[in-house]
Each structure stands twice: as structure tokens, then as C-alpha cells.
Design brief:
Elements lengths: L3 E3 L7 H14 L3 H6 L1 E8 L14 E2 H11 L6 E12 L2 E11 L5 E12 L5 E7 L2 H5 L8
Parallel strand pairs: 1-4, 2-7
Antiparallel strand pairs: 2-3, 4-5, 5-6, 6-7
């Protein structure tokens, strides 16, 4: 199975490279490689605003906070597929229009339609990753395998 399908503009850009590296590390379960992409004081909002993943909507700050997000959410998912349908890269930013399919150990799946916005610092590290998606819409796509 292909973990990252890119059907979007792909002209070389630092933020687009960081976005691809981030998605690839997640899809391959490489936590340490993923964390190394972030600036020490980076902010991860996934999704932006209050949700079941972040009830206060404050996001996850710094590598320790982002590592805790991995442990509490990303690390619990059996597999990820990223489909990038559009990509806009300018300045220190890249915004990708995507569908992320998550697969659980029991075979159930969920599709998350989203816009992923990456912002880099002067060293090429991610200072902000904001995932704009609606949990209720994503949860409505859950499919469970027939037993």
C-alpha cells in the first residue's frame, strides 16, 4: 500500500519538503524522525480548536508536547495513508489539501478531509503545524470490517 499519494503541484519548496517528510515519517511510524522536523518551541494543532484530542484547543507545544500527542494519538493508529490533492507553497509556508485515511488494528478506517498548514523557521524546522478538519465529519466516515 502506498502511504503518500501526491496529486498536487510539487515544485520544490522548503515547506513542501518538510510537509512531505512529516507525512512520510508518520506513515512509516518513525516518531523520532518526525519530532526532529519540529523546532524546539513548535506548536501542533490537530485539529485546530477544541476537540476530543485537545479539549481546551490550546494545541501541543514544544517537542515534549508534540511527543505526547504522538503517544496518545498517532502511535495508537495502525496505519496512515495520505492523499494530497492540492498544495500551495509560498514564503515559509505550505498548505496542503488532503485526505488522511487512518486504519485501526481491528480493520476499521476513518477518512479525515483536511487542510494541513506548515510554517518553517529560518533553519527549515516546523514552527507550526495546523491541521484544519472537523472531527464530526471524520467520525461519520468510520467503516468497520464485517465479521
Amino acid at each position: 500500500m502506498i502511504a503518500l499519494t501526491w496529486d498536487a503541484p510539487d515544485a520544490d519548496h522548503p515547506a513542501r519538503r518538510a510537509a512531505r517528510a512529516s507525512m512520510t515519517a508518520v506513515a512509516e511510524g518513525r516518531k523520532d524522525d518526525w519530532l526532529a522536523l519540529f523546532a524546539p518551541d513548535a506548536l501542533l494543532e490537530d485539529p485546530v480548536g477544541p476537540s476530543f484530542l485537545d479539549p481546551e484547543g490550546a494545541g501541543h507545544r514544544g517537542r515534549d508536547g508534540i511527543a505526547a500527542f504522538w503517544d496518545g494519538f498517532i502511535g495508537t493508529i495502525a496505519g496512515f495513508r495520505f492523499h494530497i490533492r492540492d498544495s500551495f507553497a509560498n514564503g515559509p509556508c505550505c498548505a496542503n489539501v488532503a485526505t488522511i485515511t487512518t486504519m485501526m488494528d481491528d480493520g476499521s478506517t476513518m477518512d479525515v478531509d483536511c487542510v494541513l498548514v506548515y510554517v518553517l523557521d529560518g533553519e527549515g524546522l516546523i514552527t507550526s503545524l495546523r491541521a484544519h478538519w472537523e472531527p464530526d465529519r471524520a467520525l461519520a466516515t468510520v467503516t468497520r470490517p464485517a465479521h
